[in-house]
């Protein structure tokens, strides 16, 4: 246990009086070390919060369009999808099911051509499994009628094609009669019934919805290709998918949303870990300031150390004095940085919005980052990890200067005093 006098002297040295220029410079170095550790900790908390918010927002918008779980019949089309839906809904985690078909192709309007994935749906069933079908999105998709050849475009896709509700677009897709020697596209004219927007650029710019009957006619089939399932907790999709695979009667292929987007989420996690490592170096560099400050303090306090040794202080007590001084400096920086980082992380969307408004710039390009606003999600587990690493680095930075202080020779230090 550290004796009280060691703490008192360590705190006093941290404050380093202003009786001389050297003491003033040591005090300045102490402030620099505190500020350096604080800024490093704050930067680390803010960046991790942005990464968390990015993963949360993009993931939520992605899941709102994609299926929690998709079920396919290994034999091909799912002709009796109602029976399969009933079997799936026996699982208590499954809340709803909806059939779907997908038609890849190119949408044309005058001299503009854009690739798109058309999803054939039954609007009344799709509303049960798709989170984005609310408000204007639901109103647009409810307009789809069988045989009317209507299409609902993503907002960015409609903007790129320069069309609005009531206009017409042409779908071009591979023909069933195409061959290597005769590649003839199949075309169909659609009337734009409306647009939808989920806030995810990939879907808003490359996806459209048509009625299931129209999709089946385009594909020359008489049944949907699979089922989309909604479950109570999207995070449990892998476990529920495995349970369905074991319980469904028949030969079915079951795929959950984590399999479809595993590469993207793995990349985000990898980036988050790399950012943590890189930004930890900022705290490490700031810890070198603590080393420099303690080395200067030890040099300045050689006479004090000699007097303490003469009065009977043990080398371990001398070491503890300077460890207290350095560790308290680091802890003050960690506390200040944590407070600053948490406050910024909580208010980052508003801060970013204010900067965008003030400078007239867009911080995030939705063509690149899928979203157009700066997200933030503060996780206390991240804060705990950052604080732990910063405190550990601050502690390690005190060891060598404190040990060096114990090597002071009292007779040599007091010779010219």
TrEMBL record:
TM spans (from-to): 25-51, 274-298, 319-346, 378-400
Main location: membrane
The MacB-like periplasmic core domain, residue ranges: 30-246
Keywords, ordered alphabetically: Cell membrane, Lipoprotein, Membrane, Transmembrane, Transmembrane helix, Transport
Annotated coiled-coil segments of the chain: none
Span of domain ABC3 transporter permease C-terminal: 276-410
Membrane topology annotation: Multi-pass membrane protein
GO biological process terms on file: lipoprotein localization to outer membrane; lipoprotein transport
Family matches, as PANTHER family: LIPOPROTEIN-RELEASING SYSTEM TRANSMEMBRANE PROTEIN LOLE
Name of the protein in its database record: Lipoprotein-releasing ABC transporter permease subunit
């Amino acid at each position: 246990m550290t004796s009280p006098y060691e703490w008192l002297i360590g705190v006093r040295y941290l404050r380093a009086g202003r009786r001389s220029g050297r003491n003033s410079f040591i005090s300045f170095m102490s402030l620099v070390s505190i500020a350096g550790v604080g800024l490093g900790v704050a930067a680390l908390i803010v960046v991790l919060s942005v990464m968390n918010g990015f993963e949360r927002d993009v993931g939520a918008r992605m899941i709102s369009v994609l299926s929690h779980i998709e079920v396919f019949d290994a034999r091909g089309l799912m002709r009796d999808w109602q029976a399969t839906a009933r079997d799936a809904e026996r699982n208590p985690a499954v809340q709803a099911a909806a059939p779907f078909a997908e038609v890849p192709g190119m949408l044309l309007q005058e001299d503009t051509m854009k690739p798109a994935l058309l999803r054939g749906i039954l609007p009344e069933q799709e509303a049960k499994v798709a989170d984005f079908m609310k408000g204007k999105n639901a109103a647009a998709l409810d307009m789809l009628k069988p045989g009317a050849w209507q299409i609902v475009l993503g907002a960015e896709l409609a903007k790129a094609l320069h069309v609005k509700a009531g206009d017409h677009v042409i779908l071009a897709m591979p023909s069933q009669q195409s061959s290597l020697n005769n590649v003839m596209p199949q075309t169909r004219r659609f009337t734009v019934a409306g647009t939808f927007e989920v806030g995810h650029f990939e879907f808003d710019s490359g996806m459209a919805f048509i009625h299931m009957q129209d999709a089946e006619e385009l594909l020359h089939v008489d049944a949907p290709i699979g089922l989309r399932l909604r479950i109570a907790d999207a995070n449990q999709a892998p476990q529920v998918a495995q349970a369905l695979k074991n319980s469904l009667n028949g030969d079915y292929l079951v795929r959950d949303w984590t399999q479809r987007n595993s590469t993207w989420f793995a990349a985000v996690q990898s980036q988050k870990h790399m950012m943590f490592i890189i930004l930890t170096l900022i705290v490490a560099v700031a810890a070198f300031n603590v080393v420099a400050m303690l080395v200067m303090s030890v040099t300045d306090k050689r006479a004090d150390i000699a007097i303490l040794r003469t009065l009977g202080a043990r080398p371990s007590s001398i070491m503890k004095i300077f460890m207290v001084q350095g560790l308290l400096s680091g802890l003050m920086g960690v506390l200040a940085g944590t407070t600053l980082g948490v406050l910024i992380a909580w208010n980052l969307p508003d801060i970013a919005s204010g900067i965008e408004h003030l400078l007239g710039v867009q911080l995030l390009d939705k063509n690149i980052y899928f979203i157009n606003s700066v997200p933030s999600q503060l996780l206390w587990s991240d804060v705990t990890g950052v604080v732990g690493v910063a405190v550990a680095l601050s502690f390690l930075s005190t060891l060598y200067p404190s040990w060096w202080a114990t090597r002071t020779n009292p007779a040599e230090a007091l010779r010219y005093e």
